[in-house]
Amino acid sequence: MSETDVHGEAVDWESEDEDSDDSEEEEEEYTSPSQPPSSSNFDKDRHLVYLQMMYELLPHHYQSQEINRLTLAHFIISGLHFLGATDRVDKDVVAKWVLSFQAFPSNRASLKEGEFYGFYGSRSSQFPIDENGDLTHNNSHLASTYCALAILKVIGHDLSTIDSESLLLSMKNLQQDDGSFMPTHTGGETDLRFVYCAAAISDMLGDWSGMDKEKAKNYILNCQSYDGGFGLIPGSESHGGGTYCAIASLRLMGFIGADLLSNDSSSSILDPSLLLNWSLQRQASDGGFQGRTNKRSDTCYAFWIGAVLKLIGGDAFIDKIALRQFLLSCQSKYGGFSKYPGALPDLYHSYYGYTAFSFLEEPGLSPLCPELGLPLLTALGI
Fold first, then answer.
1. Residue 33 has pLDDT above 60, yes or no
2. Which UniProt keywords apply (predicted)?
3. Domain for residue 285, yes or no?
């Protein structure tokens, strides 16, 4: 997976579903028929062991994810926070490591030359400066910047120590005329994922000077489909990831309120009842949520769709008992969560499994801030 994914991992939301459609045999190879019956309880102790192991040493299977190392660290460290175990993290070491990934302009004039000075995703995407002190290859990325700031907030680091002025001034360079964002200054896609990253970054830094919110709002609304959901780009099929990015961004930017459904829909910038209907239809017969129509249920969509329903005030309509049972069927005996029942766990689906259980108010888990996908107290700066 490239860094164009919002939260890293080898899943580009719907593109992985598309790949799986091409061959059911691939799914069969990935599924373990010997997987034991699912537990009836959220196994917090096993999840702690799983994340602690990942914190200390990533398995070799993650070598292909090297470019997303900051993203993987976000899943681990923020996951530990949801489990109430941030004491297992050396916060000073983590802060120093994360801050070492920020790109800096050689001078003030560089901020107007089109590049973005955020955070790199890993050492492999971080090139040294030349003999003149200039960055010849600046690969800092919006998604990596979101993850970097998320980690720093989770460990309680003071974000005022970051060069946010350079970051936000240069982030303006990434916004396109139609309101969308590129993730990096050259060669990137433009879609809702990076509008969301820009909005989340602005919210975490408490400064909206790095984006034109009105243009971003218009782009988001142009991505809404006839069925009420949102595609990643205008005219594309509605799906869970794009819909989350749209609704969370509008909430962060202040264009929709805390309970969209209870307000007068005639004054809303979108049709909340149509959005509610599309979102609720994503809960499948097995209790899980699918990302698109006629797709298989997937652990991560319990967050992407569940958070949308939470943000618009429609979460009371979710069959939470059935959803919990589906998630437990994806809980691994090794700790962590898999994408599907019977598959092996991975950090991406594990993290969104934890956020989903937090959303379901599992005892012992930190409450969720749905618009940022982070622990609530972290999002509030507490």
1. no
2. Magnesium, Metal-binding, Prenyltransferase, Repeat, Transferase, Zinc
3. yes
Q: In this structure, are residues 270 and 263 in contact, taking their beta carbons and an 8 Å threshold?
A: no
CB atoms within 10 A of CB 234: 17
Instruction: Give the torsion sign (CA, 287, 288, 289, 292).
Output: negative
Strand 374-375 to 368-369 pairing: antiparallel
Work out the angle between the directed axes of helices 320-329 and 347-359 (0-180°, nearest 10): 150
Strand-pairing partners, residue 135, are 129
Q: Is residue 310 part of a domain?
A: yes
Task: Give a yes or no: residue 184 inside a domain.
Answer: yes
Q: Which structural domain range is residue 290 located in?
A: 44-375
pLDDT in tens, 278-302: 999 999 999 999 999 999 999 999 9
Residue at 296 is within a domain = yes
Distance from C-alpha of 228 to C-alpha of 357, rounded to nearest angstrom: 26
Mean per-residue pLDDT, 53-66: 92
SS3 368: strand
pLDDT number for residue 261: 84
Q: Cβ contacts of residue 287 below 8 Å, gap of 6+?
A: 297, 319, 321, 322, 323, 324, 325, 326
Separation of alpha carbons 16 and 10, rounded Å: 8
Q: What is the CATH number of the domain that holds 345?
A: 1.50.10.20
- What's the rounded Cα separation, in Å, for the pair 168 and 92? 25
Mean pLDDT of 247-254: 97
Domain count, the chain: 1
Report the candidate in 323, 265, 279 with the shortest Cα–Cα distance to residue 42.
323
Q: What is the pLDDT of residue 326?
A: 98
Q: Is 119 helix (H, G, I), strand (E, B) or coil?
A: strand
Residue 281's Cβ-count burial label (10 Å; 0-12, 13-18, 19+) is middle
Q: What are the tokens at 29?
A: 């190879």
Please give the mean pLDDT across all residues of the chain: 87
Coil, strand or helix: which one is 337?
Answer: strand
